[in-house]
Structures are given as C-alpha cells and as structure tokens.
Design goal:
Blueprint: E1 10-19, E2 22-30, E3 33-37, E4 40-42, H1 49-61, E5 63-77, E6 84-97, E7 107-114, H2 115-120, H3 129-138
Amino acid sequence: MPGAGIWRPHVTVACVVADGERYLMVEEEVSGRVVYNQPAGHLEDRESLVAAAVRETLEETGWTVALQHLIGVHQWRSTEHGEAVVRFSFAASTTGHDPNRPLDTGIRRALWLNRAEIAALGDRLRSPLVLLSIDAWLAGQRLPLSSLGYVPAGGSA
C-alpha cells in the first residue's frame, strides 16, 4: 500500500531468575504508573538475544546472570502502547551482584518475590507475560540456548 508504514513488532527479552521459590523482579515507573516486571527490555540493533537478556538484567537489577535455557517465545499486544510485542523469555542464574550499580532510568528497585506475591500484584504487573513465563518455567518448559542462532553482521550462516 502506498504511504503505509512498515509494521514491526517490538522484540523484547526477559529473564526468569529463580532463587529457591523467589524470583528477581523490578519495580519500575512507566508513564507515571508503578509496575512490576522481570528484568526485561528491548533487543538493540546488532545484538544477540542472549546478550540482550544478560545486559538488560544487569542494567535493571545490578545482577550478573548466566542464561541456562530459553523458556519460550510469547506474543502479546501491549496495553501500554498498543503495539505487538514478541518476547523471548530465558531462565537464568545469578553469578554476581553489584549493589552500588546505578539502575536504568525508571527502575525504582530490584526485589525478590515468590510466585504468590507476584500473582497478588494483579494489574500492577507490566504484562501478563510475567506470570506466563514463570508458570512455563515452573511447568518445566526448557529449550536449549542452541535453538537460537545469531549471525553477526558480515558473518555467514
């Protein structure tokens, strides 16, 4: 269609980081509203999905993580901005923490909550994908990281 824009979904990554029965979460301010999410964010140009998930977790929480598995790929239309979102959810374990690291703009704090506490947040969850990815992880859904391919610019498949 002449004059029509090119449609592109928002590609995001998120990490389910478990410590026993608790999960690493972020409390953030989005459009004047306080919401809760896993460490998550947008894939940047020329960045692998794996690198994006590790980077976003560090920037939003101060925790360094090692990815273990791909939990799943989920689609959703954001009620926040109305755009389509394709989210790659990963399982990760912590390898270190820098409590003095400044957190991304809008992130108020990182915190650890159990599933019941997360579910009780209700409409304060940034998206339904938060519980969807935790429940997929709890159900044992795990795909190898090798199922994701990345060919850097100039590389060959």
